[in-house]
Amino acid sequence: MKLNINSMTRGGLLVLALLLCNFTFAQRTITGTVTDAETGEPLIGANILVVGSSTGTITDFDGAYSLNVSENAKELEFSYTGYSSQRVEIGSQTKIDVTLSAGQQLEEVVVVGYGSQKEKEITSAVTSVSAEDFNQGPITDPSQLLQGKVAGLQVYNRGGDPNGQSVIRLRGISTVGANTEPLVVVDGIIGASLDNVDPNDIENVTVLKDGSAAAIYGSRGSSGVILVTTRSGSQSKGVEFSYNGQTAASTAFNSVPVMSPDEFVAAGGTDLGSQTDWIDEVTRVGISNVHSLSASGGSGNTTYRVSGNYRNVDGILKNSGFEQFNGRVNLSTKAFNEKVSIDFNSSFTNRNSDFGFNEALRYGVLYNPTAPVLGANAPFPFASEQYGGFFETLGLFDSFNPVSIIEQNRNQGQRTEVTYGARVGYDITPNLEIAGRVANQKTTVANEEYYPTTSLFRGNATSPTRKGLAEFYDEITSFQLFEGYLTYVADVGSRSNLRVTGGYSYQQNNFESKFLSLGDFPDNTLDFGNLIQTSQDLQNAGFIQANSAVSPDEKIIAFFARANMTIDDAIFLNASVRREGSTKLGADNRWGIFPALGVGVDVNRYLDINNVDLLKVRVGYGVTGALPGPNGLSQPIRQVVNGDDGSVSTELIRAANPELKWEEKGELNLGVEFTMGRFNATLDLYDRNIQDFILERTVDVAVFGTDRRFENAGLLTTQGAELTLGYDVVRKDNMIWNTGLILSTYKTTLEEYVVPEEQRANLGAPGQNGTNMVVIREGQEIGQIWGPVFEGVGEDGSPILQDINGDGQVIGDQGNALNPDADFTTLGNGIPDLEFGWTNQLSFGDWSVNAFFRGALGHSLVNTFRAFYEPRISSQTSYNFVNTELAEPGLTSAQFSSLYVEEADFFKLDNLTISRRFSFEKGSAIRGLTVSLTGQNLFVLTNYTGTDPEPSLVDYGSSDNGGEVDFSNPDVLSPGIDRRYSYFASRTFTLGVNLNF
Prior knowledge:
The chain is mainly beta. Helices cover 6% and strands 48% of the residues. The radius of gyration is 31 Å and the shape is globular. α5 runs antiparallel to α6 (402-408). It has a domain at 1-103: Carboxypeptidase-like, regulatory domain (Immunoglobulin-like), CATH 2.60.40.1120.
């Protein structure tokens, strides 16, 4: 089937427009209030919905509501988060007041994609987190709001680089290729950027964890789905403003322990006459400021919310951080007697980043502690003007003045992102709605790096062939989305209902980039912004590099349907199917079918166990897919060959594969939900099989004309368990204390791969570029750190390695690492056995305390700083020595072994917030004021000697002698490596003010 739906898109829009005509029915207005049954306080933002339709409203700040309903409307449903919902027959009433009782959140409505469901009716593994449960403090990455809050969701930003992206995993590895992170859907817009959502604008996040929940998103759902709902306006008296301000101070929480200048000299280090704390020279107290202002309100059938967010964030590394402005508009209205609903949202973000140089931290660890910062302070004549006034240890491999790196060079970027979307719905009948959504997103990135002629680091000031370097990278990504779908809802008897949704989705993605590199400048008189214009002054045209890339129109087309049925208010059925095609796949295999089925039963409805509110058992199975990252993997690749005789020809270097298809994941999930009074628990057990990875393989030249082509191959299995516990320890009028614990564990096995076994994760230079630290084998668990076992130090200062197999000889060289007779073994695993989060929320009077603890057990990290700089190698007397409690003083040669693999279990007080709420008299211009103090990373209990014990779930490879790291190609099969370019962890204190007026 050809992927061309332009005519279908126009036709769908025409049909939608025709259906949005004005049909009027007899209407009446119902008013009333919604209050708390115990306290009588108004419930602000309570939901009122006409049963069997999408017509509804919410209460204002007095708990009041007004709702226009048709004459044939029979029931209203009232619901509020944390309270049991209630249905009321309308009859002839025009005023309905309702009191809701605090319940066990059984009636909470949860967004599940293309609609919503009551929480108790969900048959899949779905977790919803509201704003009041988010992590607090100056959160720069919205995903960090959920860190430790959702069982099975891993969010790690090791070290806390303000410009770094968190690594997000849901139930472990879902693919060995691209798209390893969950699909993000913001306000119904599939693939919207989470970077274009300010944390202060998020109302709720729902995580679809298992296959039966994510299957409705087809070929992009294998890594899970994160649904983000932003804050919206409410109907209230006039315009209401809210201001949120934060000021934070961050300091380096931990560093790599190294020798002091005196210790270094005593150990035989080269004495250059100074005493310099290089880490102190390149770090600082990072000051961050956040200001957010929003205006919301509504009139009649229209509600709106407009917000502006400003963030100025300094990292603990000097010259790292960003300045960002974000604006968002959300507008909702109803028209034509409330039969037409329109929701519009738009967001704009502009971020100016100073990426800094993480390498300054690396060289701050290893640089000679007796070296001066400035060349003028050298103990011998030094031509410091040649290096910008800084001292450099010339002639040494992988040695650069860390202060010079920061002060002389520039690494900056700008990202501008615009997203907008609109949803239009029309109630054809009270039970049938047709809806359409259009959306667009465009992201522009412009990064610039400049290394002057005086910079030894990448500028190569001592090079006879190049002085200075400038690099420019521009990128534009965009997508357009159109969706149309019908939703039918109906009551089937007094305690049963049916909801059916079916529709069509079209999305087109585009990408283009340009890269330019210039080098060998006459001097530094020209700013790097003018270097392109003056490129004719370059002395060597060989230092000009340029390339560009443009993607074809990448299209994804889908047809989908889902049915939800509740029987006897206790049996819940869910079934969905999505048929989807992508231009990224082979011409003969572009379409896939992704089905899902789920069943849930409230067993207690029939057992009627005393004091038990809910005992639900559910089981779901779903099939999802994963697409490749690049385009054209199914296409042949040829290169131009210039013959010695002047002829020009082409040569096939990669064969085509028209059968290339999507990766496929089948997942079975069994869940049990239990609620009894103040206690609730949820247990999920899952089994997933992921197959047909899209990998480049070696093939038969005689068959394909070359030895390379992309094929579907491999099988990965994961079994895991997740447990969520919650208990209201105290629930009194003047005091509430609830606690919650989440635990998750999983094991991933590589059942089939393109090779039976291989080593990965090269340690790097100096001296250990032949060392690989991770092994993968068919039939074995992912994440094995592989190497010899250290037993002691020999008389000559070399390591003594264990004779593991007891054959009387030790084979510990890297060249024999996979030899069956070699003395290598598993030294640890980079993936934790258990991850947990523990939340405590306490409120008493106007005070509240939120303490969140987090930890992980059973994972190891390779401490690469120790592996390189801890052995007392005589030839390294110009580099500082790492000096941990695990150091072996007599060890004078470096060889990777179990000595450098450390258990990295940790338990930390991740977040502590103390806040005080101030009340004002009714009629005051100020509606409320809250002042808070938050501490992040307050303490960490761990035996790991590195800077951050959090798991390293991906590896970006080694980088040596000033080389740049390629962060675009993470290796998900090599967890557990703590590289030398990691950002240092920090501790942060934040003073916050929230003002409503």
